[in-house]
Amino acid sequence: MDYNETIKFLYNQLPVYQNSGNKALNLGLDKIQKLLIKLNNPEKFLKIVHIGGTNGKGSSAHSIAAICQYNNLKTGLYTSPHLFDFRERIRVNGKKVEKSFITEFINKKLEKIKKISPSFFEITFAMSLSYFKKKKVDLAIIEVGLGGRLDSTNVVNPLISLITNIGFDHKEILGSTLNKIANEKAGIIKENSIVIIGKRQKEIENVFINKSKKLNSKIYFADEQVQIVNKKNKEINFSLTFNKKLDSINSTILSNYYLENIPGVILTSYFILKSFKIKNKEPFKGIEYIKETGLRGRWEILSEKPKVICDICHNIDAFNEIIAELNKMNFKKVYFIVGGVNSKDWKNIIKILPKNYYYLLCQPNIERKMNVGLLSKIFRYHNLNHKNFKSTSLAFNYINSIAKKDDLIFVGGSLFVVSEFFQEWERKN
Description:
- The chain is an alpha/beta fold.
- 39% of the residues lie in helices and 18% in strands.
- It has helices at residues 3-13, 17-20, 30-38, 57-70, 99-116, 120-135, 171-174, 178-185, 205-214, 222-225, 256-259, 262-275, 316-327, 346-349, 372-381, 392-402, 415-428, and strands at 48-52, 75-78, 90-92, 95-96, 139-143, 160-163, 194-197, 218-221, 226-232, 235-240, 246-250, 300-304, 307-310, 333-338, 358-361, 386-388, 407-412.
- The strands form three sheets. The protein has an eight-stranded mixed sheet with strand order 4-3-2-5-1-6-7-8, with helices on both faces. It has a six-stranded mixed sheet with strand order 12-13-17-14-15-16, sandwiched between helices.
């Protein structure tokens, strides 16, 4: 198989959760463990940082990777899903995995893959570990796919586990209470490791404390260890409990929403650099080069006149933060292009959407899309001004024809909607 045929095989022959939803899920570690044995357990040759949580996993992973790269660590980065190109999932120092590696990997392992019948995510993750081993990375940063305890990535034994904030998402899989969700996320905590919790949440803190104690792992709450001294015009001054030294970073590319994850990023990076005995007068400055890691779709500004912002926010906590950001801005009219998958908590998300926005509802081109007609019914019930479109492309064409220079256009609700909007944008601009 050539590269295109290989990608078709991955999508057509293996269960793909991002497209098909729960029926493609293979919760549990049995298949991934069998697959990794066939690959001579590449994970055992890697130093790993494992990142879970509800919101901010991807941006935290990219931020830590940026800091590591800046400090001359050869850094592997595994994230999911991707926006445009399958190869975005697997990077070394920001560069996407070569097409030739993917093709060779699948062709050589095809029979073994078919016997084990792994999911799309399992084979992708196994591929990333093999690639990182081949490239002899100093460190591999691994983002959890879904949950933690039963996620395929949970076969690794990391130096550090970072868990970002916990909120409600994937309730049909992870549980309907914060406590249940936290227990699933805490599943990535391993024996004799460092555990970093991005934010102390009183109602669930004991989940992480007890799990860490049981496994003899040292736990830190990042928001208590990293003191933000000053924050002005995206210049953030902070100090670490460990060294009392005042440091600063510039985060002009991120919204205040993503800045909530900064303490976890800083503390995780501190322990990484310490373990590699790296000394640098400005060790955290690398976060300013996050774009070099390939980060896309997080508060990404495509245009100023009109202001066009894209963000892959897709749960109620993320929507709350995004709306708070948008409400700080002064625009004559706000257009909100939104759509996503049918498993999201749309009935509650809609309750927090501002009445003064104008909504363009669309549906992504995937099997588990939220039907735009059904979404429209919920919007009508809540008296929200909106217009329906059967595709992101149609919504794009409409907004492109009516938007004025002093308008704000926000695109979100789903990675798939953002991805499709990006593609239209690049075709037309």
